[in-house]
UniProtKB/TrEMBL annotation:
Gene3D superfamilies: Periplasmic binding protein-like II (3.40.190.10). This is ABC transporter substrate-binding protein. PANTHER family: ABC TRANSPORTER SUBSTRATE-BINDING PROTEIN, ARABINOSE-BINDING PROTEIN-RELATED. It comes from the Bacteria. The lineage of its organism: Bacteria, Bacillati, Actinomycetota, Actinomycetes, Micrococcales.
């Protein structure tokens, strides 16, 4: 079942090298952890420090394998060979949504109470991480808060204020351009631009309708979704996005914002932790302006989700629960939670009153309430994995060309059909 569910012919070519895919963890008292918290990712250094402290304190080895966006495919490859790491720390999206059902990872529902974690994790996170069969896929660790940041210094130079409606946004873009300042910057060529495109659509559909649209891709069957695409085109043609936005990535959008070349950026809170203190002093955090007409939102929108990194236990890990238990309990301790929030600006699914002090924009975002903004969904839990890359090509086309709403809708639907 496992090989049929996650293997197919996709990862087989990698099996020849799978012996090097996992770190050695055969020693007594040792476990292996496959993690995305590495490199330049927010929280990577904190995680490394936490693991090192745990090893010193317990005398147990935590062998690490580090990957980025390719972690799911590497993990699946090693799983097919029976050599997967005991624990995986990875986002719940695309391929990973099927891991528990396929038997690649074990449901941790029964471990919540046994390990004393149920009351330490916010209930909404547990609900979001539970599949349709009632299985908790993994322990929800980090989460996502995706606000919009406004450089108030640049807005003041242009003689405008933070926009809360689309008409105001267009006027602000005109004023900024007249001063040689870029308006909204976003990674038009990657997932960050895709997220904003889908967020704009959610200004015209209920959350129930959004679930249906993002699951099926049938934009043309939803009058609201079509209106959302038309609204996107209106904003694009009005010059709301920076020039050549289709060439930007999530990294370059942040660079442009940090260097004052653009005044507005939609970016997740973990990215806001990378905004220099000097720049953060002139930045206010809010939501994406509501449509001036025809929309369904009363307040600017912010993507919010409890889906960030989860702590998954593999088939191999199921044989080491006695060793994994204290490690996971340590990750959900007050000290580790505080270390992530204070040391990296990460939003956590652990129940806590701790607020970031060295990352003021993250703190601002965490204080936004439903009186300030309207939360909208992160579509990642609904979009089939095989659709992600084709869809990003569609949204890149939408940002960078004069394509009509009809052409965008058609290409969007075809990305689902082809996948």
């Amino acid at each position: 079942m496992l090989k049929a569910a996650i293997g197919g012919g996709i990862v087989t070519p990698l099996l020849a090298s799978c012996g090097a895919l996992v770190p050695a963890s055969d020693g007594p008292g040792s476990i292996s952890v496959h993690t995305q918290l590495s490199g330049a990712v927010a929280g990577a250094q904190v995680f490394a420090d936490v693991v090192a402290a745990y090893q010193r304190r317990t005398g147990r080895t935590v062998a690490q394998l580090k990957n980025g966006s390719d972690l799911p495919i590497v993990f699946e490859t090693s799983t097919l060979a029976g050599k997967e790491a005991d624990v995986a720390i990875v986002n719940m999206m695309g391929r990973t949504l099927g891991w528990t059902g396929a038997g690649a990872t074990i449901p941790v529902t029964g471990l919540l109470d046994d390990w004393g974690l149920r009351d330490k994790i916010v209930p909404e996170a547990l609900e979001e991480w539970t599949d349709g069969e009632g299985r908790l896929r993994a322990f929800p660790f980090t989460r996502t808060n995706w606000p919009v940041s406004f450089n108030t210094g640049l807005l003041e130079e242009a003689g405008v204020e933070i926009p809360t409606t689309s008409d105001e946004l267009i006027a602000v873009a005109d004023a900024l351009r007249s001063r040689g300042i870029g308006p909204v910057t976003v990674g038009g060529s990657d997932w960050s631009g895709q997220k904003l495109f889908l967020q704009i659509l959610q200004g015209f559909v209920s959350q129930e309708e959004a679930r249906r649209v993002f699951s099926t891709g049938r934009l043309s069957e939803s009058a609201g979704a079509v209106a959302g695409v038309e609204h996107f085109v209106e904003l694009r043609d009005a010059g709301v996005f920076v020039d050549d936005v289709q060439g930007y990535t999530s990294d370059s959008e942040l660079t442009q914002f940090n260097t004052r070349k653009a005044a507005i950026v939609p970016a997740m809170s973990s990215a806001l932790a990378l905004v220099p203190a000097e720049r953060a002093k002139e930045v206010a955090v809010g939501g994406w302006p509501v449509p001036s007409s025809g929309g369904v939102l009363d307040r600017p929108s912010v993507i919010k989700s409890y889906n960030g990194h989860g702590i998954w236990i593999s088939e191999n890990g199921a044989e080491k629960l006695d060793l994994i238990k204290p490690f996971v309990q340590d990750l959900f301790s007050d000290a580790v939670t505080d270390a992530f929030i204070l040391g990296s600006g990460r939003d956590m699914n652990r129940v806590t009153d701790t607020v970031s002090t060295d990352f003021p924009l993250v703190a601002q975002a965490s204080r936004l309430t439903d009186d300030d903004v309207t939360p909208v969904m992160l579509p990642d839990l609904l979009i089939p994995d095989s659709v992600f890359e084709p869809m990003i090509k569609v949204t890149a086309m939408a940002y960078g060309s004069s394509a009509s709403a009809e052409r965008i809708v058609d290409a969007f639907e075809k990305s689902y059909d082809a996948a």
